[in-house]
TrEMBL record:
Entries under SUPFAM superfamilies matching the protein: NAD(P)-binding Rossmann-fold domains
Species assigned in the record: Vibrio variabilis
Entries under Pfam families matching the protein: adh_short_C2
Record's protein name: Short chain dehydrogenase
InterPro entries on file: NAD(P)-bd_dom_sf (IPR036291), SDR_DHRS6-like (IPR051122), SDR_fam (IPR002347)
UniProt KW Oxidoreductase keyword: yes
UniProt family annotation: Belongs to the short-chain dehydrogenases/reductases (SDR) family.
């Protein structure tokens, strides 16, 4: 992850086009396929609430997805939109060279985010 000062435009564009627009387009285009009273549930991430140094792009796009969910929930009445924001997965933290202590094992995350 690049920090605020060193992130290139291409890194911002990648985050925006993939994470942000991928999730927003799931709502935009998926809404017509969901039965009345159904729901679309997206995943954001804990960095939207608790950013750390070097997380500016991920923090920003996750927060944008959360804002889009709130906006869609107000504008589209026939279905629900929700977002879950899981914490760090310990195995991901290890793969990123981070201390996995504050993370949660993948199996535990799976069990806590089922809807």
């Amino acid at each position: 992850m690049s920090d605020w000062a060193t992130a290139e435009d291409s890194e911002w564009e990648f985050g925006i086009q993939n994470k942000m627009m991928g999730q927003i387009n799931t709502m935009r285009f998926g809404e017509k396929y969901v039965n009345d009273g159904g729901a679309i549930v997206l995943s954001t991430g804990i960095l939207a609430q608790y950013p750390f140094k070097g997380s500016s792009i991920v923090t920003t796009v996750n927060a944008a997805v959360e804002a889009a969910v709130k906006s869609a929930a107000v504008e589209v009445e026939r279905i629900r939109f929700n977002a879950v924001s899981p914490g760090w997965v310990a195995e991901t933290m290890v793969a990123m060279g981070m201390d996995p202590e504050p993370g949660m094992p993948a199996a535990d995350v799976h069990n806590t985010t089922l809807i």
